[in-house]
Amino acid sequence: MKTLLVSAVLSALTIATPAAVLAQDATAGKKLFRRCAACHTVEESGTNKVGPNLWGIFGSQAGARDTGFNYSKALKDSAIVWDDETISAYIENPRKVVPKTRMSFAGMKKAGQRADVIAYLKSMTQ
């Protein structure tokens, strides 16, 4: 009975754990980022594609970085500052976070995958 109770509590904690505290794996994130690479680059002075280059994204205000990218008015007006939490929420469901964003990504639903992508972004863009 105790084993069942402990399993239930651990399962509940796993479900309720925010992405920011999940173990992050930059190597796995690099593989997952392939989905993003069609539209984004991560290198310093990298080119914009359909989406902006992501170098220096952490700590910056959405739509305000001088990348030469034409950000949507919705993103510029969002007042989002990019950190683990805001990036996780955005890549989970971009249109929920910024309803009129031009980002057409359907979203990455698994928190662990988002944490891995964030770890990769941190390793490449800072």
Give the arrangement of secondary structure elements.
Elements: H1 2-16, H2 26-32, H3 34-37, H4 73-76, H5 84-92, H6 94-97, H7 111-125
Helix pairs in contact: 2-7, 5-7
Structural write-up:
This protein has one domain: Cytochrome Bc1 Complex, Chain D, domain 2 (Orthogonal Bundle), CATH 1.10.760. Helices cover 46% and strands 0% of the residues. It has helices spanning 2-16, 26-32, 34-37, 73-76, 84-92, 94-97, 111-125. The chain is globular and about 35 Å long.
Number of helices: 7
State the assembly state of the protein chains.
single chain
The global form is globular
CATH-defined topology: Cytochrome Bc1 Complex, Chain D, domain 2
Q: What number of structural domains do the residues give?
A: 1
What is the residue-mean pLDDT, rounded to a whole number? Answer: 87
CATH architecture: Orthogonal Bundle
Portion of residues in beta strands equals under 5%
What is the rounded distance between the termini? 48 Å
Structural class, by secondary structure, is: mainly alpha
The first-level CATH class name: Mainly Alpha
Task: Record keyword descriptors for this entry.
Cytochrome Bc1 Complex, Chain D, domain 2; 7 helices; single chain; 126 residues; mainly alpha; globular
